[in-house]
Structures are given as C-alpha cells and as structure tokens.
Amino acid sequence: MHPHQTLSAIFHHAVSAVHPVQLMRNSVQVSGRTITVCGSSHTLDAGGRIWVIGAGKASAAMAQELEHLLGGHFPLQGFIVTKYGHALPLQHLAWLEAGHPVPDANSVAASVKILEIAHTATAADMVIFLLSGGASSLMADFPVNSSLEEVQELFGLLLASGADIHEMNTVRKHISMIKGGWLAKSIYPAPLYTIILSDVPGDDLSIIGSGPTVPDPSTFADTMAVLQQYRLTEKIPLPIRNYLQEAQEGLFPETPKPGDPDFSRVVNCLAGTNRIALEAAAGKARELGYHPHIFSSQTTGNAPTVAEMVVQEAISWSGPLPACLLWGGETTVQVSGDGTGGRNQHLALAAAIALAGQENITLLSAGTDGTDGPTDAAGAIVDGYTVINAEKLSLQANTFLQRHDSATFFSKAGGQMITGPTQTNVMDLIIVLKV
Questions:
Q1: Which residues span the domain enclosing 370?
Q2: Are 114 and 250 in the same domain?
Q3: Structural element, H or E, at residue 356
Q4: What's one Pfam family here (predicted)?
Q5: Nearest-CA neighbor of 262 among 186, 332, 150, 210?
Q6: 88-98 burial by CB neighbour count: b if 16+ within 10 A, else e?
Q7: Hey, which of 74, 211, 299, 420 has its CA 20 to 30 A from 379?
Q8: CB-based contacts of 91: which residues, under 8 Å, 6+ apart?
C-alpha cells in the first residue's frame, strides 16, 4: 500500500473510533425508567419528560444515536444545532444549522430556542445536553447594547490572533449568557446530564464549547488580560469593550463559579477524546505492520513551529522501523496574509518545506471533524517530494506559506485530504510514517 493510502486508512480508522454511534452506545444505557449516563443513573419521575438539547459539529450524530437508544423507551423532545452540512435526519428532535467558525443569525436563534427549553424543563424532567466542538459559534448571543455583527467581528479577531482555544473561549464565555455555566443555571432545578466530545487539549470541561454546563473559574479580568496579550483591546468593537470594562467594575454579573448550588444536579460526562482516536490509530498502524508510538494528545503551539518539531522528531527517530509516529491536539495560526487555509494545511505545508528531499517520511495533518478552517478539506498529506513537484508546476511553497494560502497550494499541487463531515470532533491528528 502506498504511504498516502496507509495514512488515509489509519486516519479514517481513528475517526471511526470516536464516531458518536460508538461513543453514545458506550455512554448511555436504559433499564426500565432508569437511564444511566457514564455510570450516573437517573430514574425518571412518573409524568417526567426527557428534553434533549445539543450544540456542536457532532450533535446531529449524537442526537440520532440517542434517539435509537431512548426513542423506543421514552417520548423525546428537544432541539439541536449543528454546523452547515452536518445535519442528519431526526425523528423526534428539531434541528437547525448555523455558522462556524463565526456565528450567524441562526446561531442566535439556536440560543433562544435552547434557553426556551431550559426554562421549560422542571425538576421532574430530565435534560440531556449533547456538546461537541464548534458549540461556541453555533450557540451564540451578544452582550447588552451590542449586536451580532460586533460579536462576529470579535470572533474573527480572535481566530486570526494566534490565541489558543483556552484563551479564545475565556473571552467568548464573558460576552454570553448561555456559555460559561449559564445554561446549567437556566436548566436548574431539572437534572442535567451533559455528554461531551472534547476538542480541547487537556479536556478541560470548562473550555469545551465554552463550558455552558460547567462552573467557570475564569473572570472578566482574565478576559481583558487575553485581549491585552494579543493587542486586541483597542481593535474589538467599542460596545463590547465597554461592556467588558463595566463588567470588570462589577456592573454585570460574573459567570457562575465552582461551588454554585445550581450545579448540584449536573453531571458532565466526557465521552470522546483525542486520546481514544490516537489509540485507535496506533492499533490500525500495528495491524498494517508499523511500529506505532504516541507522543502526545495535547500538542499545541504555532502550526509551523509544531511542524518543525514533528519533522525533526521523525528525522531523528531511532526506534524500530517502519514506524508510525502520532500526535494529537490543536495548533494555532496567527494569520497575516490574505490566503485561504486552516491550521492543518498550514502545518502540512510548513512540514513539506522542512521535509524537502527526504525519501522515507510521509506526514498527514488533518482535523477529525473533516474540515480545516473555512475550507472543505480536512487537511493534507505531504512527503519529501511535495515541494519539489510543486516547483515543477511553478508553485513556490514558501510564498503560499507566507500568504497563509495553504488550501490554494494543495488544491493545485495535490495532497489535500477531503473527507466531508465526519460527524465527530476530537481535535486534530498528525500521523507520520517513517520507513
């Protein structure tokens, strides 16, 4: 099998291991009127209702499998929001597609609907919330005296700043009354079970999807510190800046904190992680005759810097061959050009430049959700001939890297990995074969 085909097979196997069908089956069991979520059981009161809400790139697939698991036992009702192109047929639940990575009017409409359900649920009911990456954009609102357009501008500035997901979601939580634990407070006193797929390095539940059902340890002061660190304080829209400054002075309430009694009926269940995908990738590589080695499931940092690190690790690898070297996580890109791409294609392009002339190393970098930034590619596969062959087509890899135009480069040079929506999201995988 050609190394490119091998990489594709390993990646697809890893993604299959974190598909919501399998994860939901592992997480939810039913016995009579008792529903067990990740080991925590709840017996539904007579006359009690089950409300299902969800937000994220994987929420439609999670909801579809939950309907299979519970629909034959209980009447279900509720609503989920997912990214455009990610919806699936649902029998009992309403749904909407919305904007990602920047929210749109549907994102706001989804928040209104979810909060409406939150306020409707009673102590006799049960609420199941399906949360996955992308929820910060798909479920959006905006501070008083501001607008959706101003929140969109803020999201765009954050995405281009080089801030990591922890920093971006610290800001996002503090311009919202649904993120940062506020959704859980709206649902109380109904019992709430949140099933979570992590797209955050370290699996910090308060950061995934901006933590709508998790107490928030961060503050408005932390938010201002992030904006100052990335020199955004004077760039963000004035109404939002004024809101954050007034909130820091105590004119608006802080996000709910650990110890708040309204979280006493909340169970947050981590069902899917990048580590699960990495272990599956290692298993598939072993099956194909490779010696796998997992370096980390928490790889972060500037994409070209990570690319250089990965390439150097591969070149200097002295373990058994053929080897499959694995990293998971989420890198960042500080955008300064006017091109099109995403962090995985940007990383792959930087790796291709570093690999030029190497004959025994092939690298894949791709998002488990099937999308890389605002493109239809999941990522790209490169080797020691990528840059050399591109030059024959008059494509200068360094020029495209500097313009942050990796998607255009790979669409012309070849190597783009297009999977379509995978219905899951546990960050990115970097897979390297050395023979």
A1: 275-434
A2: yes
A3: none
A4: MOFRL
A5: 186
A6: bebebbebebb
A7: 211
A8: 67, 71
